[in-house]
Amino acid sequence: MPDDIVASRSHQMFPLLSAGDIARLQRFASPVGFPKGARLFAAGERGAGMYVILSGSVAITQRDGMGHVVPVVTHGPGQFMAEVGQLSGRPALVDGHALENVEALLIPPEQLRALIIAEADLGERITRALILRRVALIESGTAGPVLIGEPDAPDLLRLQQFLRRNGHPHHVINAADDPEAADLLAQHGAAPCEPLVVCNDGAVLLNPTEDVLARCIGMVDVGERDELFDLLIVGAGPAGLAAAVYAASEGLKVAVLDCRHFGGQAGASARIENYLGFPTGISGMALAGRAYVQAQKFGAEVMIPAEAASLDCSQAGRELQVRLKDGRRLRSRSVIIASGARYRRPDVPRLSEFEGRGIVYWASAIEAQLCSDCEVVLVGGGNSAGQAAVFLAQHAAHVHMLVRGPSLAASMSQYLIDRIAAQPNIELRTRTALTRLDGDPRMGLSALAWRSRSGGEAFEETRDIRHLFLFVGADPETAWLQGCGVMLDRNGFVMTGADVTTLTHRPAALEASVPGVFAVGDVRAGSVKRVGGAIGEGAQAVAMVHQYLAKI
């Protein structure tokens, strides 16, 4: 990793534990020993937990699956070896070898979480170090799986976005600049624009799905699960993560699942400036990442990617079951629906041909880099659209913002309206709709057209623009609830509280028509569709879950 990163954070990334600190953590640990040359852990393999060195030294190195090994740091007495993945027993991202005989303490993941909670000040120092080590591995660009191909190829960007949104380190190699990588592509018969992935254990995947990639790098557990959870949360956006943090911190056995990544749509927000406590704003990814670590700290099990296929309510009142798309079933006493909403697609011909090939539904640093000094079009008039427009204006030459209505006032916060008006390279086009998309599906979008209405007259304009960002709202992710009796409104959102009260069922404010099933965030009918509101509902629902569990 870059020397300046290590130098600026080394005192927090690699703290030295005192004799007193080690004495405090001994009740959570067991003694272990390793001879010189022994391997303590290896990238891609599930580690035993956090090691605290009592004597000897250990070399930490990282390898990229291509045979390249980079030294990271050498740990000695009083230092510990782990990063944030060890909170939940995830595979190691680096290798550790004993440089001499080593005596150490081993703290397994469940005991590590107990230590962090029981010893608050020591736990804070350890947690900060674990997080900073993961951040440094991401920033180094040399850890984790290797993605080989053309940097702007749609499928490579798809995989890169998946790993980035899940906070997983990865390394991108442009095959045009690396003969070894080019030979590997040819050896595996990769077609033009088709990426190759090399996992830490050396396994090679040709243009994998996100699910296949996740299994290769150990992100997701594929074993059968028969335990009974107290609470199962479907969706790891702000509402779901808030519920996970509060429920797990209060002693409930909690699992959270999401089919894509943590953070939901809010995780794609470049900057959230109206969330309480962050006067200078915070990116959606940063906010969601903190909540994700916090949920694991308290013992919530986060399963990503894991897609809910159906909800079985036949034993409601005793047990509920969520069937996953891979066929497995998860059992729980209660369920919180936090599945949010999926991106809405405007009715424009050929839209599906260019999704991921010039058309995206978020605006991250990856997309900003790709459209640097280019013209872009952004469609939408909500807060997410406004945040994206302001963010993209810092990179793109010109941002054409298309909205159907006469202004932004009905759908956007005033601070964003003011900021958009102050950006000289954002051009707001009201009463305007996207009408046509042109290009070769293999190469991507090359041109588009829009129609504007002014003074009763309509005119169409065509531009050679290759980047289109769509922020036109979302539809609730509730198809998986069909057949279980959860009542939806006419738009497909989950109805709760007084709206579903019957003579036999008087639900709590956030409880659905099926006892023990709750709904929070964007998926719930009547929710405010704001990050703050979603987080509040997630916390509020946990209190109602406690009341429900007390009854059964």
Write the layout of secondary structure elements.
Blueprint: H1 3-13, H2 19-25, E1 30-34, E2 39-41, E3 50-55, E4 58-63, E5 69-75, E6 80-81, E7 95-98, E8 102-107, H3 109-118, H4 120-140, E9 146-149, H5 154-165, E10 171-174, H6 179-187, E11 196-198, E12 204-206, H7 210-216, E13 228-234, H8 238-249, E14 254-257, H9 284-297, E15 301-303, E16 308-312, E17 320-324, E18 329-337, E19 341-343, H10 351-354, E20 359-360, H11 365-370, E21 375-379, H12 383-393, E22 398-402, H13 414-422, E23 426-429, E24 432-440, E25 444-454, E26 457-463, E27 468-470, E28 474-476, E29 517-519, H14 531-551
Parallel strand pairs: 9-10, 13-14, 13-18, 14-15, 18-29, 20-27, 21-22, 21-27, 22-23
Antiparallel strand pairs: 1-8, 2-7, 3-6, 3-8, 4-5, 4-7, 9-11, 11-12, 16-17, 17-18, 19-28, 24-25, 25-26
Helix pairs in contact: 1-4, 3-4, 8-9, 8-14, 12-13
Q: Features of this protein?
A:
552 residues, alpha/beta, Jelly Rolls, Glutaredoxin, FAD/NAD(P)-binding domain, 7-stranded mixed sheet, 5-stranded parallel sheet, 28% helix, 26% strand
What does the model show?
- The protein is an alpha/beta fold and 552 residues long.
- The chain folds into four domains: 3-140, Sandwich (Jelly Rolls), CATH 2.60.120.10; 146-216, 3-Layer(aba) Sandwich (Glutaredoxin), CATH 3.40.30.10; 228-342 and 474-551, FAD/NAD(P)-binding domain (3-Layer(bba) Sandwich), CATH 3.50.50; 351-470, FAD/NAD(P)-binding domain (3-Layer(bba) Sandwich).
- Helices cover 28% and strands 26% of the residues.
- The protein has 14 helices and 29 strands.
- The strands form seven sheets. Strands 13, 14, 15, 16, 17, 18 and 29 form a seven-stranded mixed beta sheet that branches.
- Helix 1 runs antiparallel to helix 4 (120-140).
- It is globular.
- The chain starts with a helix and ends with a helix.
- The relative contact order is 0.09.
- The model has no long low-confidence stretch (mean pLDDT 92).
- Keywords: Flavoprotein, Oxidoreductase.
- Residues 13-133 form the Cyclic nucleotide-binding domain.
- This is FAD-dependent oxidoreductase.
- Pfam families: cNMP_binding (PF00027), Pyr_redox_2 (PF07992).
- InterPro entries: cNMP-bd_dom, cNMP-bd_dom_sf, FAD/NAD-bd_sf, FAD/NAD-binding_dom, Ferredoxin-NADP_redctase_2, RmlC-like_jellyroll.
